[in-house]
Design brief:
InterPro entries: KH_dom-like_a/b, OsmC/Ohr_fam, OsmC/Ohrsf, OsmC_Ohr_Peroxiredoxin. This is Peroxiredoxin. The protein is of the alpha+beta class. The chain folds into 2 domains: 40 residues, no CATH class; 103 residues, 2-Layer Sandwich (GMP Synthetase, Chain A, domain 3), CATH 3.30.300.20. The strands form 3 sheets. Strands 4-7-9-10 form a 4-stranded mixed sheet, with helices on one face. A 3-stranded antiparallel sheet has the order 1-2-3, with no helix packed on it. A hairpin with a 2-residue loop joins strand 9 and strand 10. The protein is elongated, with a radius of gyration of 20 Å. The termini are far apart. The relative contact order is 0.13.
Length: 165
């Protein structure tokens, strides 16, 4: 029997400004993402769609999910294959392309740009290569219908490791 996992979250709209959704401009896109025992995430629509730029939007959360999944699997591979990671930061980027009608769009690409610091310069090339193993197992990347590319930078002792030739 296959193992299954379930994930439950609540999304609660908090944007009724007194007249509900009477018209397109009469309500806020503000909402909260809530999980039992977890901090609430203040969210909204993208500012381009009348959202609040001070709150997370679904597109940002999707990109964060892709980046988080990649990082967690990458760190796992490093830990099991002898690469000691000291620091990891991903400057992830997504592109959303609107359809011709202007009424919809979709994420067409995510580029992960992890900057990884490893303890031993001798493991830098292995550290770079391990990014290539992640797409086969990352739950989120395997679930989306757009390409997820990665452009890692590997550092040792705070300096960039030489790029492969």
């Amino acid at each position: 029997m296959s193992a299954t996992h379930t994930y439950d979250v609540a999304v609660r709209w908090t944007g009724n400004l007194g007249t509900g959704t009477e018209n397109y401009r009469s309500y806020s896109r503000a909402h909260n993402v809530v999980g039992e025992g977890k901090p609430t995430i203040a969210a909204s629509a993208d500012p381009a769609f009348r959202g609040d730029r001070d709150r997370w939007n679904p597109e940002e959360l999707l990109v964060a999910s892709v980046a988080q999944c990649h990082m967690l699997w990458y760190l796992h591979f490093c830990s099991t294959e002898g690469v000691t990671v000291l620091a990891y930061e991903d400057l992830a980027h997504a592109v959303m392309t609107m359809d011709e009608s202007g009424g919809g769009g979709r994420i067409t690409e995510v580029v992960l740009r992890p900057e990884v610091t490893v303890a031993d310069a001798a493991t830098a090339e292995k550290a770079r290569a391990l990014h290539g193993k992640v797409p086969a197992v990352c739950f989120i990347a395997r679930s989306v219908n757009f390409p997820v590319r990665h452009e890692p930078v590997i550092r040792t002792g705070g300096a960039p490791a030489p790029a492969p030739r």
